Amino acid sequence: MGESMKVVLRDALRMVGIGDAVPRDGDGPQASWDLYEMIQACIQAPSYHLVFEAVLIICIVRLFFMKSYKPERTVLTEREKEELIEEWQPEPLVPDVDENHPVLLNMQNRLVEGKIGKYVTINGKSCINVASLNFLGMSGRTDIEEAAVKSLRKYGVGSCGPRGFYGTVDVHLKLEEKLQEFMRCEEAIIYSYGFATIASAIPAYSKRGDIIFADEGVHFAIQKGIQASRSKVVYFKHNDVNDLERVLKLQQIEDKKNPKKAKVTRRFMVIEGLYINYGDICPLPRLVELKHEYKVRIFMDETGSFGTLGATGRGVTEHFNIPVDEVDLIAGSLENSLASVGGFCCGRAYVIDHQRLSGLGYCFSASAPPMLAQAAISALEVLEKSPDMLVRLEEMSKYAHSRLATLKYFSISEDPASPIIHLRLAAPSGQREADLNTLRTIVQLAEEQGVALTVAAYLDDEIHMPPASIRVSINCELSRDEMDRVVDVLQSVVQQL
């Protein structure tokens, strides 16, 4: 600002009563200096800036004195209310389903009577059962039923509350202790629903900002758990350790670009011991090597392998003779080999204790009915006393693989130790629905000849849809003659088609 402008400014301030507020030689009160600087800034500011601020001030003052808006309220007569209610059409809670949907047709056409064992009665017809995941034949044992009934008389039907809210019964603690000893882990925790076990365990540890390396073949409950974690997800090809190492190396390169972020990012590898949707076993020894090399934690779901693999049924770790501590978290199901309801997780104590406060399926779901917990305990005791049933299961699985491999128009899963076998069309049409209809026809015709099979069912929002297949489940109580009968029926049905 020039000297002439300073003179004008002093005269203007003197006229409004401030007098000699602006010091001439750089000294004077601080308030005078502040006022001087403020007025100087206003003089130097662009005109559009001053206009904009003035408009804002006017709008704020106008809003301050404006009366609040009160909408007019329309009072309806009783007749108008009735007319509106009659016209209103609520939206359906769920979308309409075609009455001819295959699942609904199966429910209408298949009525199971009596117990589920190696034979099952469907619509009054006895069939060899290779559809149920009753690997050890526990569902039909009278000693387990008697233990469950005795528990029912003592505890009643259920606890009617979550574990943390008066839902913990002593039999729950006994089952956890039994699982801990059986799996040779520091601690175990049980869930009342098998699906919720792994779906709750994954988001209890992996959060937003973490990274999950998951096999493309993991089942739907694992996919939901991964989705709930909100972590970054990297899928690798099913059971392909080379592809897994490829994505781990790519992540290692990314970590070097931002080491500060990499230092606080947790990494998890999510796999299955025995893939239910494919019938093959994970290459755990190589996965453990990659775990140590690339510093990731392994979460393994043993829904299919618990009670089926290993000399005593402890799963994949025992099958490959790998220390159980090499796997950071093991999840399993009580609903297949033990013929009960629910699931469990086991591992180190500090890992499992975290779920008691963070596992949503544990904290907010009613605990398992005590009689079902007792049934699982009794089934575990049977398994410990009779490990020979696992020998029979393995022998029958290998025999079933060898016989089913002779079927001309099918390809089968490759692992002969697996009690789950998927039969897929050797020459698929390329249209999934057409292949499914073919497989459903095969299952229906086989049922008419006394063999109960099932088409592997998946939801439409599966992330990686497995190929269409017939799932064959082996029971340790099956004989070779019965398995031959299954193969002969399948061969006959295929020839009819």
CATH superfamily of the largest domain, by name, is Type I PLP-dependent aspartate aminotransferase-like (Major domain)
Distance between the termini: 100 Å
Mean pLDDT: 87
Please give the largest β-sheet.
Answer: 7 strands, mixed
Task: State the secondary-structure class.
Answer: alpha/beta
Categorize the overall geometry.
globular
Q: Which sequence of strands runs across the widest sheet? A: 4-10-9-8-7-5-6
Instruction: Provide the number of structural domains.
Output: 3
Radius of gyration: 35 Å
- The helicity comes to 40-55%
Give the oligomeric state.
single chain
Number of helices: 20
Strand percentage: 5-15%
Q: From the 3D coordinates, which CATH architecture of the largest domain would you assign?
A: 3-Layer(aba) Sandwich
CATH topology of the largest domain: Aspartate Aminotransferase, domain 2
- Output the CATH class name of the largest domain: Alpha Beta
Number of strands: 15
> Which residue ranges are poorly predicted, with pLDDT under 50 across at least 5 consecutive positions?
none
